[in-house]
Automatic annotation (TrEMBL):
Domain of life, per lineage: Bacteria
Segments of this protein annotated with the region Disordered: 27-54
Chain intervals with Gly residues compositional bias: 27-48
Name of the protein described by the UniProt record: Uncharacterized protein
PROSITE patterns to which the protein is assigned, alphabetical: PROKAR_LIPOPROTEIN
Length: 1218
């Protein structure tokens, strides 16, 4: 019938009030609805038997329109069996009724499907009969049978057979269509339903009854009038509609007037009379409109002042007396979980607005409390401060009555429950509930409950505890757990008792040991871990590194920090590194490097020294941008005193401000790290750092200050670079000294020996000035530009301090004494420094005389020093500081027989002369560090080296990448004398050089270690002992790593290159590719995964995002079967920087991994842990946090005399753990 311009889909429009697609504002004469019924029966119109209503409908062409309509009405009555008394109109019943009548498909079952969509006019034969089967859009068909006249008017039977024209709505059953007018000006038709059926969300629906419509063309559009008398049979209840429809649609396809009225019988709930009028649309899309419901009471719903106002005449006196509000029709129908309770009209106000809650979680588990935050809310006529916020929690649609807070405790839901939560806003009269946000509860991991498990344990002790495993989603599921993995020697008996004899020592002073438990039924593979923190007094660990060179002030200290009775130099790199350096007459030797976490964020701004814990040992206090920590034991982590990740600390010092013999902490704090930001200076006790003893505003661009007694009273004074002097007893400002603005530097010291300190100030580009606070006068000045640091120190041991000004920007260091109110130059010393640097004086080398130590950075920053002789500083040219960067563990080797050391290759080094070549650094059995001479000017990026004894003479060598000092690109260097034994590879100036991995491996099984390395995509092997090139092989992509070994039959090599991993054999100087797989590996190692003698290959899958995100890493195990790599295990793990195999056992070996804890490879704040995994990938133990970025191939392991030993290497530090 589309040739008439209007289709019979207009039939759905009147039923929009019952939810047909929600709205007819588009003017489309089609609609979707959803109501269905039983499949219609078939019958005939002949014979003497009285036809049934179903037979009349299925043989519509044989009956008059009146008979068909009567059949439809009869079926509607027969299929309604509900209550006919007035419905009780509660707020909940009213809301549900509106949704049922006006809701969209899926929200209500009372929607009519679109029928009669097919154009039957083209299927009429010469005698007016119609008999044609139309295919439906998605599936099924509909059979048209009937008789029409020349104007296509008549009766048709539509037999729907699993017909899906509207997605998700599959129709079956009988419909009689009677068309009585079909012109350009008027369409009139009747639909009679004889049990049309379909399903919505599993609910079977059957539709019976009659409806007729007349559509007439008008000058403004068209007008539709009609009646409906239909019933919906939904099995457990039924609904009957007896309604009239009258609406107009303009030429733009928009509603211009709507009038709906009639009676609705809602099953067991009873009867409601309704009247709806509007001039724009139907709910929920209407912005106007009034709906009157009459049942046990009269209810009016009307849009007034852009709000939907609901009122009820509860006492039926003709006047409404209670009511509530909603924001709109849509808000009332779909955004209000529970309609607002009615209140008396005299207190009724505009409703609060309540949007959905903001979830504070991604998944919901039975074991975890669920927390939400309020969504947006407001109230037009109530201040926000007077609104009350609460929450409703629902489980599977049922309200939890006692829970109305923002946190739902754990244990309230189980797997596959639907948890709902809404926000409720109350303004004192109206209570608005937001839309319910729903979440499906996830499957909670199993929980392991342990009894008698200590929180911490000591090395050498015995631990016993019991373990049960429980499924939190299943009641009474607790059972004895099975021990899947645990530390070596841990056992579990049949009663669940775990016994473990803790090792007598660990690699790290603190390690976390893990026990992995599972279900006793092996079919359930789920596991859970519990952890125990263990400590050991490990004195066999050596951590050495670069001498930390500060970039700022207050970063050098001299004292006995390790309790050996001798002074050391304490320094920081002004980032996160802290080191102790042994100073001798001729050298600066690395003695200790802090390997632990500070527990506070930000860069280090100052180092301080004090006996913090009263054990007569000097402790280290560290101030960073976000806190202060103290190190009381060089082998253990720091204790946090102050932590503040919001504010910034810009300066910190210690001083005894109250004469109690214990120093206080003085620090400057600001809201951000801008120099001009407002600041505050606080003084706190180290015993109670949270309690501020003294505080003042401190708004200088620089944050320098000094503490001293500068007047005649006993109180100490605070002197700031803002020219202010404060009495620390009273807190009063006693003096604003000097003229002009701020000073860069402020110091205090008794320069004239009168027992009272003078105030000394200086600017970087200005004079030095000395002030006397007692006379409030300036005593002396001295012209000395470019001052980076000021200190006072008794240089000549006369009990009177001198002033030392450290120059920068190539200025000299100058010492002054104060005599007759004049600053007298005692000596000058060239320091050759360009930047702000720390300076310290004291007996650093323990010779009974003082030294001056500072930073010189004419090339790169290094330590420089001078000896104080008779009060005069004499530069010590022989005491050299060598700065090292990019450590890489090469392994262990004998320098000479009986002199075994841990050996590290260092790619960059800097001395006072400014050279920057590669060096070999060793640590002997006593922890002494020896720095070798330069072995290479390495202009390339390789940092990987390997120790060897290629000629088996008992004196070790190191295989290194080489450039500059040798003729080749790689070299073998004798360790004890740094001589090059062999080199190979061509022109060292070749910019295409890409030396990568270097390994020492016996490639030809002759008992001598060979030099194996890759240059970009080429693999090369050389027999140094016999001066032979054993072979080379080129690949399509750069080589990431390789491993080689010999089994009983041949020599194997596995190469990871590009995105593939290849298996090769080696024989007669030829590498032959045997097979390959599509697997990208960043690291390869050989280890024995199982119990046979043949090794497997351990692969760390390289992920392009590994170094820049938190992407997980896969560790894959391959074995060799018939010259093919076969994957036997794949385990997902955190990002791994490097690995080493644990050789403690020969079979079922575990491995160690440097695992990223935070940061990335490009992040200066990278933190890692060393984790021990068993062969199955279960975690056995892990170290505490280690700051720094591990170097590639920088982990080496071996089985030493006392067990496992491990070498670690970072950019600025090296570890020998044993």
């Amino acid at each position: 019938m589309t040739n008439h311009g209007k289709s019979l889909l207009i039939a759905c429009l009147p039923l929009i009030i019952l939810g047909c697609g929600g709205s007819g504002s588009s003017g489309n004469t089609g609609g979707s609805g959803s109501v269905g019924g039983s499949t219609g029966g078939s019958g005939s119109g002949g014979g003497t038997t009285t036809p049934t209503p179903i037979q009349i409908i299925t043989n519509a062409q044989d009956y008059s329109p009146a008979e068909i309509n009567e059949a439809g009405r009869t079926l509607a009555d027969e299929n309604y069996s509900g209550n006919q008394n007035p419905m009780v109109l509660t707020p909940q019943a009213i809301q549900q009724f509106v949704v049922d009548m006006f809701g969209e498909q899926g929200d209500t079952y009372l929607t009519l499907p679109s029928v009669g969509d097919e154009d039957y006019t083209s299927r009429v034969n010469g005698n007016g009969s119609v008999f044609h089967e139309f295919s439906c859009s998605y599936q099924g068909n509909v059979q048209y049978t009937g008789q029409v006249d020349e104007n296509y008017l008549g009766n048709l039977w539509l037999n729907y057979r699993s017909c899906e024209n509207e997605h998700g709505l599959v129709l079956s059953g009988s419909v009689a269509l009677t068309v009585t007018a079909l012109t350009e000006q008027e369409i009139s038709y009747t639909i009679n339903y004889g049990g049309l059926s379909w399903q919505i969300d599993g609910q079977e629906i059957e539709l019976y009854g009659t409806e007729n419509y007349t559509e007439k063309l008008t000058t403004a559009g068209y007008q539709v009038t009609g009646t409906q008398y239909v019933s919906f049979d939904l099995g457990s209840y039924s609904v009957l509609l007896d309604t009239d429809v009258d609406f107009s649609i303009n030429n733009y396809g928009e509603f211009s007037a709507i009038a709906l009225s009639g009676d609705v019988f809602m099953g067991n709930q009873g009867q409601v009379s309704l009247v709806y009028t509007a001039d724009d649309d139907l709910p929920p899309d209407a912005y106007t409109g009034k709906l009157i419901l009459t049942a046990d009471t009269r209810v009016e719903l009307e849009i007034i002042d852009n709000y939907l106002r609901i009122t009820q005449d509860t006492d039926n006196d003709g006047e409404p007396d209670q009511g509530s509000y909603a924001w709109s029709w849509y808000n009332y129908m779909y955004e209000t979980a529970t309609p607002a309770e009615f209140v008396n009209l005299d207190i009724l106000s505009k409703p609060p607005r309540a949007d959905s809650v903001i979830p504070g979680f991604s998944d919901v588990y039975a074991t975890t409390p669920v927390e939400v935050s309020p969504g947006y809310y407001e109230d037009e006529d109530t201040p926000e401060s007077q609104l009350e916020i609460s929450y409703n929690w629902y489980v599977n649609g049922e309200l939890i009555p006692e829970e109305h807070g923002s946190i739902l405790p754990s244990g309230m839901v189980v797997h596959n429950d639907i948890l709902g939560v809404s926000m409720v806003v109350f303004d004192g009269g109206m209570r608005t509930e937001s839309v319910i946000s729903e979440f499906i509860v996830s499957d909670s991991p199993a929980e392991v409950t342990v009894v008698n498990l200590p929180e911490t344990i000591a090395a050498g002790s015995t631990v016993q505890f019991t373990a049960q495993i429980t499924d939190p989603d299943i009641a009474s599921s607790a059972t004895t757990a099975s021990l899947v993995a645990g530390p070596t020697g841990a056992t579990m008996d049949a009663d669940g008792l775990v016994t473990w004899h803790v090792p007598g020592n660990f690699l790290f002073p603190e390690q976390q040991y893990d026990f992995t438990f599972g279900w006793p039924d092996a079919a359930n593979s789920e596991t859970q871990r519990i952890s125990i923190q263990a400590t050991a007094a490990n004195t066999n660990t050596f951590v050495r590194g670069n001498i930390a060179i500060p970039r700022g002030l207050d970063s050098l200290r001299i004292g006995d920090f390790d309790g050996d009775g001798e002074n050391e130099l304490l320094s920081t790199d002004s980032h996160r590194a802290i080191s102790l350096t042994k100073v001798t007459d001729t050298d600066f030797e690395s003695k200790w490097f802090y390997s632990g976490e500070l527990g506070i964020g930000g860069d280090i701004i100052s180092l301080m020294a004090s006996d913090f814990n009263g054990d007569d040992q000097t402790d280290i206090l560290v101030a960073t941008e976000h806190g202060v920590s103290v190190i009381t034991d060089l082998a253990h982590k720091a204790e946090v005193l102050i932590s503040d990740n919001v504010h910034f600390i810009s300066a910190a010092k210690l001083a005894d401000t109250n004469h109690d013999g214990t120093p206080e902490l003085i620090y400057v704090i600001t809201e951000d790290d801008y120099l001009t930001s407002p600041k505050r200076l606080n003084i706190v006790s180290l015993d109670a750092p949270d309690s501020i003893l003294f505080s003042i505003d401190f708004n200088g661009n620089n944050e320098d200050f000094a503490i001293a007694n500068v007047d005649d009273d006993p109180a100490m004074e605070l002197i700031t670079n803002a020219r202010l002097v404060y009495d620390l007893d009273t807190g009063e400002n006693q003096w604003l000294f000097g003229n002009g603005g701020l000073y860069n530097q402020v110091e205090a010291g008794d320069l004239n020996g009168d027992g009272v300190a003078e105030i000394i100030v200086a600017n970087m580009y200005g004079d030095i000035a000395v002030f006397d606070a007692r006379s409030r006068s300036q005593l002396a000045t001295a012209a000395n530009a470019n001052i980076c640091d000021l200190i006072t120190y008794d240089l000549d041991n006369d009990n009177v301090v001198e002033l030392i000004a450290n120059g920068c920007l190539l200025s000299d260091m100058t010492a002054y004494s104060l005599s007759s109110n004049q600053l007298i130059t005692e000596w000058e010393l060239e320091v050759d420094s360009r930047r702000f640097t720390s300076m310290i004086a004291g007996d650093a080398d323990n010779d009974g005389e003082s030294e001056l130590i500072w930073i010189t950075d004419s090339i790169e920053p290094v330590l420089a020093s001078a000896d104080i002789v008779d009060g005069v500083a004499i530069a010590n040219a022989t005491r050299n500081s060598t700065q090292l960067l990019l450590f890489s563990a090469a392994g262990w080797a004998n320098y000479l027989p009986g002199d075994e050391r841990a050996v590290f290759y260092v790619r960059q080094s800097t001395t006072i002369e400014g050279t920057s070549g590669s060096r070999v650094v060793s640590i002997d059995d006593n922890g002494k560090v020896e720095i070798g001479d330069e072995v290479s000017f390495s202009y390339h990026y390789s940092t990987i080296a390997a120790t060897a004894d290629y000629n088996n003479d008992g004196a070790g060598e190191i295989f290194i990448p080489s450039s500059g000092n040798t003729e080749g690109l790689v070299a073998a260097v004798q360790l004890y004398d740094n001589t090059v034994q062999w080199s190979y590879g061509g022109n060292s100036d070749d910019l295409d050089i890409d030396i990568g991995v270097i390994r020492a491996s016996d490639m030809n099984n002759d008992g001598y270690q060979d030099f194996v390395y890759n240059d970009g995509s080429q693999l090369l092997a050389a027999d140094i002992q016999n001066q032979l090139l054993l072979g080379s092989h080129s690949f399509t992509d750069r080589i990431h790593d390789f491993v080689s070994w010999h089994d009983a039959s041949q020599n194997y090599t596995v190469v990871a290159q590009g995105t593939r991993t290849l298996l090769l054999s080696h024989s007669n100087s030829i590498f032959t590719e045997l097979s390959g797989i599509n697997q990208r590996c960043s690291r390869l190692e050989l280890f024995n995964y199982d119990t046979d003698a043949a090794p497997e290959v351990l692969c760390v899958e390289e992920n392009p995002d590994t170094y820049t995100s938190d992407t997980e890493t896969f560790v894959v195990v391959f074995e060799i079967n018939n010259n093919t790599l076969t994957e036997v295990q794949r385990t997902e793990m955190p990002t791994i920087f490097d690995i080493a195999v644990d050789p403690s056992t020969q079979t079922e070996q575990s491995f160690l991994a440097a695992v990223r804890e935070s940061g990335s490879i490009y992040d200066n704040d990278t933190v890692v842990k060393i984790v021990n995994y068993n062969n199955k990938g279960h975690k056995i133990w892990q170290s505490s946090n280690i700051p720094g970025r591990p170097m590639p191939h920088g982990m080496k392991s071996r089985l030493g005399p006392n067990g496992l030993e491990l070498l670690l290497s970072f950019e600025t530090a090296m570890y020998w753990l044993r």
